[in-house]
Design goal:
Layout: H1 15-23, H2 29-53, E1 66-70, H3 79-92, E2 97-101, E3 113-115, H4 121-124, H5 126-135, E4 139-141, H6 145-155, E5 160-164, E6 176-182, E7 210-214, E8 223-233, E9 239-240, E10 247-251, H7 256-265, E11 270-275, E12 292-296, H8 297-303, E13 311-320, H9 322-334
Parallel strand pairs: 1-5, 1-6, 2-4, 2-5, 6-7, 7-8, 10-11, 10-12, 12-13
Antiparallel strand pairs: 3-4, 8-9, 8-13
Helix pairs in contact: 3-5, 5-8
Catalytic activity: a lipid A disaccharide + ATP = a lipid IVA + ADP + H(+)
EC number: 2.7.1.130
GO molecular function, one term: lipid-A 4'-kinase activity
């Protein structure tokens, strides 16, 4: 498309970014150098799992069912759209849903902290604020999941709790584990951190209740696609209709290429692409004023105070395939959640 040859990327070229690139390249020397640290990471995580399996450490069991939506790799895998989908599904079944999250990057005055749709993202975190806005469910952030659940239960009547992330947080007992896999990037070089992107080995997929692929998957795989559901003004959430003007794609997400493809498929001519690290806190200078700016909904919740009149966000929803719909319904019934 015209203009793409002039694209630019505003990523800090630090060690962390170089290491992440190594995870998704075959035979990168930097991944090899990191292998001794990955061995240490494996020993520590295996020892931690052993302590829980031997009951030396005990997991907290909530008084209501807990569903963990997590992954085995770092970076954006699509947990938030699945959490939104699951919360809506449970609400349609008449369940009162609460959501807990670590709140990565948030700076609350104390924890656990209750996040609502009016909370600013610096205090509540981008994903928790988005979850609160889209679902209307109470959302609590904090590193201590037990304390977060106890706060939820003390302030709201809750039938089921969704933990956004936390698959490796074994101190939290769970009734259902859903593991989200980016069908495009998969597991990179297949190595554990920091030599690769994995928090746990691929063996972990055999122990979860359901593996869910975000994107193109096999005919028998439970999967969903991120389906555009509208373009909106960042400043006031007013919907806009095509045709869309050309402009700059700005994103601070794990896999920006998927978002950018969605824009081009909608007819947006991208004159520039600006990438920032996941959970980046935007400043006014990050948003060019010479043209329209397109971003994700996750980015938009951080940009409302600094957005100009030509800033727009693309809303996407998880569209489940038939396999996912059937397996998820069966799982929720079998576990007594619905």
């Amino acid at each position: 498309m015209a203009g793409l040859e002039h694209q630019s990327t505003n990523e800090p070229q630090g060690f962390a970014q170089r290491l992440e690139r190594a995870w998704y390249r075959k035979g990168d020397w930097l991944a090899f150098v990191m292998l001794p640290l990955s061995t240490l990471f494996w020993l520590l995580s295996a020892f931690n799992r052993l302590l829980f399996s031997l009951k030396i450490k005990k997991a907290y069991r909530a008084p209501v069912p807990v569903l963990v939506v997590g992954n085995i790799s770092v970076g954006g895998n699509g947990k938030t759209p699945m959490t939104l989908f699951l919360a809506e599904l449970l609400k349609q079944q008449g369940k009162r849903v609460g959501i807990i999250s670590r709140g990565y990057g948030a700076e609350p005055p104390y924890t656990p902290f209750m996040v609502d749709g009016q909370c600013d993202t610096k205090t509540g975190g981008d994903e928790p604020v988005l979850l609160a806005q889209r679902t209307g469910c109470p959302v609590v952030i904090g590193g201590d999941r037990r304390a977060s659940i106890e706060k939820l239960m003390s302030e709201h009547q809750i039938d089921v709790i969704i933990s956004d992330d936390g698959l490796q947080h074994y101190a939290l007992g769970r009734d259902i584990e859903l593991c989200i896999v980016d069908a495009e990037r998969r597991f990179g070089n297949g190595l554990l951190m920091p030599a690769g992107p994995l928090r746990e080995g691929q063996w972990r997929l055999n122990t979860v209740d359901l593996v869910i692929y975000n994107g193109e998957a096999g005919p028998h795989d439970a999967a969903y696609r991120l389906q555009p559901s509208g373009m909106f003004s960042v400043a006031d959430d007013t919907g806009i209709e095509p045709p869309f003007t050309s402009g700059v794609a700005v994103s601070a997400i794990g896999n920006p290429q998927r978002f950018e493809r969605s824009l081009t498929q909608l007819g947006v001519e991208l004159t520039e692409k600006r990438h920032f690290r996941d959970h980046h806190q935007y400043q006014a200078e990050d948003l060019p004023t010479h043209s329209a700016v397109y971003m994700t909904e996750k980015d938009a919740v951080k940009c409302r105070a600094i957005a100009h009149g030509q800033c727009y966000y693309l809303r996407v929803d998880a569209k489940a395939n038939q396999v996912l719909e059937q397996q998820l319904q069966s799982l929720l019934k079998r576990k007594g959640v619905i």
